[in-house]
Amino acid sequence: MMKLIIGFLIGVGLAVGVIWNSAGSMAFSEQVSPFSVEETTARIQQNIQAAGNGWSISGLRNPAKPVEAEGGNVLPVLLIEACSTKYSGPILQEDSVRFLSLLMPCKIAVYKKNDGKVYIGILNADMIGKLFGSMVGGIMEKVVVDQKKFLVMDPSKPAPALIIPKMGGEGGSGGGAAAGC
To answer: What is the pTM for the complete model shown?
Structure first.
């Protein structure tokens, strides 16, 4: 009996360890882009605008700027902020899940790594949504469909111009009227 209990506890410990070590890769994903950081960002912005479902660009951030301002040397990183009131509205109206506003607006990271390649990083909205019940899960399933549209990199299309959102709105999110989505 004691061997059974010890075996069970070891099994549980190993399962927890595997989950702990793979949680980050389950919650986030990244893909390589064939374009520069700026062109990848511009293409994603264009795709967001074309996606429909109320999506708009609410901000563009350069988190490397403050590090560089203090003398640090950082590879390029841009954060695209996008929001759809169609999806954010129901979540913001429900007290039990309003804390998920922490994840709004949706962010897509475009960055260069030391291997010289440009990557796109996104939150696994489907997995996160399922953690918070059927209402949020259903909304996030729709977000995932749209996210896939955002990440299409068609080299046959000409490079669009980078969109620099107007500054303003609450909290300096850089998105004007769409700020806070």
So the answer is: 0.78
